[in-house]
Amino acid sequence: MRVEHLHAVPHLTTALSGPLHDLESHLLTNQSTIEAWFRSEWIKTPAPFYASVDVRNAGFKVAPVDTNLFPAGFNNLNPAFLPLCIQAVQSALERLAPQARRIVIVPENHTRNRFYLASVATLQEILLKAGFEVRIGSLRPDLEGPSDFELPGGKHLTLEPLERQGDKVRVADFEPCIVLLNNDLAEGRPPILEDLAQVVLPPLELGWSNRLKSEHFAHYHQVAREFAARIDIDPWFIDPLFRNCGEINFMKREGENCLRKNVNALLEAIQKKYDEYGIDKAPFVVVKADAGTYGMGIMMVHDADEVVELNRKQRTKMAASKGGLAVTQVIMQEGIYTFETWGEEQAVAEPVVYLLDHFVVGGFYRVHTDRDVNENLNAPGMHFEPLAFAETCNNPDRSKAPDAHPNRFYTYGVIARLALLAAARENAEAV
Amino acid sequence: MRVEHLHAVPHLTTALSGPLHDLESHLLTNQSTIEAWFRSEWIKTPAPFYASVDVRNAGFKVAPVDTNLFPAGFNNLNPAFLPLCIQAVQSALERLAPQARRIVIVPENHTRNRFYLASVATLQEILLKAGFEVRIGSLRPDLEGPSDFELPGGKHLTLEPLERQGDKVRVADFEPCIVLLNNDLAEGRPPILEDLAQVVLPPLELGWSNRLKSEHFAHYHQVAREFAARIDIDPWFIDPLFRNCGEINFMKREGENCLRKNVNALLEAIQKKYDEYGIDKAPFVVVKADAGTYGMGIMMVHDADEVVELNRKQRTKMAASKGGLAVTQVIMQEGIYTFETWGEEQAVAEPVVYLLDHFVVGGFYRVHTDRDVNENLNAPGMHFEPLAFAETCNNPDRSKAPDAHPNRFYTYGVIARLALLAAARENAEAV
User: Fold this and answer.
1) Model-level pTM greater than 0.90?
2) Which of A280, A398, B100, B390 falls between 20 and 30 A from A16, CA-CA?
């Protein structure tokens, strides 16, 4: 990561930021109300161990579009804020497992992605520095012993096969107190992790085999309403509209009418809001798998007919998600424009906010030079440049303009925590 | 504060650092043991709300020499680590007063010291950013209404008179949930703060009117023994020897024999340790008030006869402490050389470590150009240049040498937390 990247912040197009200005002002003015509210909410529903939240900033609206409870990308965070991560982990584990000393991280299986492994290595470093012994226990069936992987930058990561012994898992002679999942379980709950006597964070129930985006956003919708009422704003400024369909089969073209009807209804609802606030933009809808991650099977739709006019290749793409899981349920979500750009090329920049426990510990922008403002930035195989957040999200400055950098980051931190609270409520229901 | 000062670290004379090298290596190697031990200790005895710990680094020995439970100097911390302070405060107050929203800080009365007021302003900023409403309630009897004070750098601080109403205190119409003492109560417990229904942090019992340094260091001695046993080192490497006398009257020359006897015994004990480890330095002893702060009434002694050969001026100085409190009890403490120097002039640099709850959030060096390595750096009216810690104390790097900067700061953080734990045990006994 180049040094100048650690001090740069993307430009926010301000032409449309009038109402957002109001939103950010509201957040600043009501900071103590907001923080007191979060405090009481975390007591009622404790936050999951960690999360990353994809946020979109349309200038007139800021909202989460995806909440990942098994976050990767720790390697993209600003190294200057590592101490914040260390402290947050200490705080979280004191609460969750005060006697714990040893941790095994269970990562994703795709060992060819060196950037992913670099994220696991950063996570391991954070936990080590927080004062824990940490080893990596892989679920890969082809891993027969400790395997060393070289990472970008010359660092190394050692994966070891995870083994079951009675009601505990271990790697070699290392028996952890905590099993930290960094695997989203999109392919199902691995039997080796069932009914463990050890603390499993996050719980298996939060894996993608159990979770639906539509459930998350239903919780988020409720959270956004409660929050908006507190600070007296239209919840739409922070909440993406959505609808979902039952069983869909893209290959057999089953469920298309449901899709078309819902996309239409969403586009109309968005247009109504755009009219209400004088927003001269074309509404669009994002269609994606209701379970799963990694931006597979994602479609941007400006017209309901687009969902029934897919060619064979597009259908195949929509039908499959990560780990080969077939897409049978989809969520249709209000598309939110990205009005943050980076550099002379005005590359689109999408913030991803990181949370450890309920602490916002940093984030980065996905910067992509070839994409348009209403396109999905997390598509399969897509290349992006990470741009670490130049400042933390907990250090707002009332003496500056509401959209000054520290205040913009504070806004992202608030939105990300609202999404985290929705995930906490999902968790409370699931376990 | 000049920018280059935020990235600089004083030079540590390494000629004598052999055994210290061992100490720092031990701390690094045993990090997970150390952190697990601290975790279990904080469960048994929660840390006071905040503290600053004066540490001395003699190369062969690192130890605390003073623990302040009503710390000033927050304005001297590196602004880059403000987010760490914010997060630590959030974590602490969630535990101590989860429902709280409003805080009144009760500062010291000396409003002429603009640097002190700047510290109060920084503390207020940390609490504000952590999401609390914060006002300053002064005990000054001459304060009739809100008074605005200009601070270095053009900032402002508003003091308001603290008022009692029933079993609560307030400023104007602002009734806090938390009363945060930043006044060390050297002059006694103010009646206005007795028997409050509000949360008082730290408790009145920890004021200097109740506390004795010798009690603190008795606890510290025990903490150091337990800790040293864990990581298998001679506790002397982290523990300053000390003795105390009963009633002393410097003006009437009462108690001199006790002083002389104890200073002698201490000097002999130090010499024995110096011989054991081949340290070719002259032992010295620090004589100071057992209650109180601000470096008044402090004496450096290389020979027991010095304590009985004081002239009238020296006696007067030793007899009075802060707030006019007469020194009647003294503590004699092993003097620890300061072998950290700063700049071409090799100015002596003494680290002060800051803690919020049990989190080490930063620190600064007192840099003094005119003093010698065995002199007290916190003498009355003394001028020092603050040099903010360039790095945090929770981010050690095992890939670097044990005395590399991040590891030296980690060592300071460990020593400071040992002192904090001693204060926590004092607190548990007092309340």
Assistant:
1) yes
2) A398
